[in-house]
Amino acid sequence: MSPENRYDNDRPEWIPYARQSIDESDIQAVVQALRSNYVTQGPRIRWFEDALKELTGARHAIAVSSGTAALHLSCLCLDVTDGFSGIVPANTFVATANCLRFSGAKAIFADVDSQSGLAQAEHFNSAIEGSVKNGIKPKALLPVSYSGSCPDLEGIRKLADEHDMRVIHDASHSIGASYLSSDRSAHRSGSCAHADVAVFSFHPVKPICSGEGGALLTNDQAVAKRARALRSHGVERSEETVTKIGPWGYDQVELGLNYRMTELQAALGYSQLGKLDEFVQKRLALARRYNDFLSQAEFKKVFERPLLDERSSWHLYVIRFQESSLRDKAYHFLKERDIGTQVHYIPLYRHSYYEGGNHEELPGSESFYKACLSLPMYPALEEKDQDRTIEALKLFCERVTA
């Protein structure tokens, strides 16, 4: 966000593309944490982690300071480190690839579906084949949920098993969502039913907010134990250390980090988690309303609506323009009318740090990037503001098709 637009969200007339939904109960939860004996490393971390396990069905949840921290720990715990590589969809936020680089591994980019923005098993398979031709055998696949919907995690897991690879599901967009496996059984996002590790983010624009924060989920006890140690300097406390050293005993077992979540963040996250189903239902209602209004012919001439995925948590509502030049014009047209939108995402290979990728090799990612625009979507979005957005889009479409 450029400096001159940094405080748009503070202007009453401005409709942001996303924002947190904080109420008095959330505020009181944080106040109670402030008044307690602990502001870090207290019981609220465990409460939040237990609630995440109950939500997802995963056996272990480790709360950390950010989604990026959870991704980094995932790579460390699965030994995707120096000399190895992982495959990441080109259409994702930089953190998904950066976690590999933090760990010393190389990031390889997979294409995505030009309609959904999701990388599926066939996209990962193409990236694997290309890597093997170049003498590189990737160690991990990092499928990413997009806009609230999960990719085909079952198919990706099967592919990973065929190549003896690990799966890290970046579920930052899809807490509260679910998906069906081939036998029609339902799985919650973050369950790790088809992943070694799943990761959530609790950034303010995500489905629930803890200020900053994240979580690593897994069904592997050894991974969970290592993640807990690595998030706190690589330190373990056990009966053995107490017996050997004394009641104050602890042991640093490897070089770790300080990725701990505070009690304040956990208090807010726990309070927000209790509203998740309500938030997702509100987002789904907004998506249905967008789809109903944007089904009119004047809109279809200019852009496509997303398919209405009933299992999505609707983190984003993304439309795709028929012509890329219209996407850019629409962004500025809406901004001039105090309506915020965003582009999710600039392909990773277009960033200076990762520059050098061949655009022609990833046509789906290029096509999706040039066409996509995220409209305002958050639980507190009022119908009058959604109507304002739709009316502005209608005016834009009338002008460009006149």
What is the molecular shape?
A: globular
CATH superfamily of the largest domain: Type I PLP-dependent aspartate aminotransferase-like (Major domain)
- Tell me the number of helical segments per DSSP (H or I, 4 or more residues long): 14
* Rg, nearest Å: 22 Å
SS content category:
alpha/beta
Tell me the strand percentage band.
5-15%
* CATH domain fold name of the largest domain: Aspartate Aminotransferase, domain 2
CATH architecture of the largest domain: 3-Layer(aba) Sandwich
Q: Total number of β-strand segments? A: 14
Order of helices and strands: HHEHEHEHEHEEEEEHEHEHHHEEHHEH
Largest sheet properties: 7 strands, mixed
Low-confidence stretches: none
Strand order in space, largest sheet: 1-9-8-5-4-2-3
CATH class of the largest domain: Alpha Beta
Residue share in helix: 25-40%
Which oligomerization state do the chains in this entry correspond to?
single chain
In round numbers, the mean pLDDT is 95
Distance between the termini: 32 Å
Number of structural domains = 2
Protein described:
- It is a single chain.
- With 402 residues, this protein is α/β, with parallel strands linked by helices.
- It has 2 domains: 250 residues, Type I PLP-dependent aspartate aminotransferase-like (Major domain) (Aspartate Aminotransferase, domain 2), CATH 3.40.640; 126 residues, Aspartate Aminotransferase, domain 1 (Alpha-Beta Complex), CATH 3.90.1150.
- Helix 3 packs across helix 4, helix 3 crosses helix 7 and helix 5 runs parallel beside helix 6.
- The longest helix has 19 residues.
- The model has no long low-confidence stretch (mean pLDDT 95).
